[in-house]
Amino acid sequence: MNRRRLCLHVPAALTLATGLAPLALRAQGAAPVEGQHYVKLSQPVPTSAGPGKVELIEFFWYGCPHCFAMEAPLEGWVKRLPSDAALRRVPVGFGPLHQFHQRVFYALEAQGQLEALHRKVFQAIHVARQPLNTDAQVQAFITAQGLDGAQFVQTMKSFGVTTKARQAAQLTEAYRIDGVPAIGVGGRYYTSAAMAGGFEQAFSVADYLMGRVRRG
C-alpha cells in the first residue's frame, strides 16, 4: 500500500499547533460527518477487548511530534472514558524506522517497562533530541534508565516481539490507517486529529463513535 511517511499533512499540523481551527460542527452540537470527521470501515476488524467492551486503539509512532503532543491530552481523555471502553496503543510500521520503533515499544511491553518508559521514549526523541534509531542508541538509552540495555536490544529481536510487530502491521492495514496519530473505534471506525481539527475534537468524535458501536 502507498503510505504517507509524514505524521500529518502540513495544514493539519498547523491546526494542532495554533488551535485556530476547531471543529465547528461539534461545537454547534451537530453530529460528525462520515468521510469528513471519521471513516467507517468497509470491512469490520475483529477486536480483542472482550464482551461488552468498546475497543479504542491509538495508532502512533514514537518519531511523530504530533503523537508526542497528543500524549498528555490523551491521558486526560482516558481518565474520562466510561467503564466499557478499553484503550490500547498500536505502533504503526509504515517504513523501516517505524518498524524499528515498533520493536522498542513491544520490547518495553515484554519487559514490563511500558508504563514506566513509554513517555520517556517520546521525551528522549522530541525534548532531549536524542535519536533512538539504532541498536546502540536504544541500548544506551535503556542502560541510562538503570536496565540491561544489551538484553533489551535482544528482546527487540525476539520471536515474541516480532510476532507483536507483525500483528500491529496487520491491524494498521485492516484499519486502513495512513497517517498518525489516529484513533480506531470498535473495529468499525477511525478518526484523527487531522480529520477532526485537533486532539480534543478527535476525542469528541471518538466518543460519538463509541455510542454508535454500542447501538450496533
Tell me the CATH superfamily of the largest domain: Glutaredoxin
Report on the biggest sheet: 5 strands, mixed
Strand residue percentage: 5-15%
Number of helices: 10
Mean pLDDT: 89
Order of helices and strands: HHEEHEHHHHHEEHH
Unreliable residue stretches? 1-6, 8-26
Radius of gyration: 17 Å
The CA-CA distance between the termini, in Å, is 30 Å
Briefly, what CATH class of the largest domain?
Alpha Beta
Number of extended strands: 5
Query: What structural class should be given to the helix and strand makeup?
Result: alpha+beta
| CATH level-two architecture of the largest domain | 3-Layer(aba) Sandwich
Helicity range of the residues? 40-55%
Give the total of domains: 2
CATH topology of the largest domain: Glutaredoxin
Strand order of the largest sheet: 1-5-4-2-3
Given the C-alpha coordinates, what overall shape results? globular
Give the topology.
Blueprint: H1 10-18, H2 24-27, E1 39-40, E2 54-60, H3 65-80, E3 85-91, H4 96-110, H5 114-126, H6 135-144, H7 149-156, H8 159-175, E4 182-185, E5 189-192, H9 193-196, H10 199-215
Parallel strand pairs: 2-3
Antiparallel strand pairs: 1-5, 2-4, 4-5
Helix pairs in contact: 4-5, 4-7, 4-8, 6-7
What would your notes on this structure say?
- This protein is an alpha+beta fold and 216 residues long.
- It contains ten helices and five strands.
- It folds into two domains: 122 residues, Glutaredoxin, CATH 3.40.30; 84 residues, Glutaredoxin, CATH 3.40.30.
- 52% of the residues lie in helices and 11% in strands.
- It starts with 9 loop residues before the first helix and ends with a helix.
- The relative contact order is 0.21.
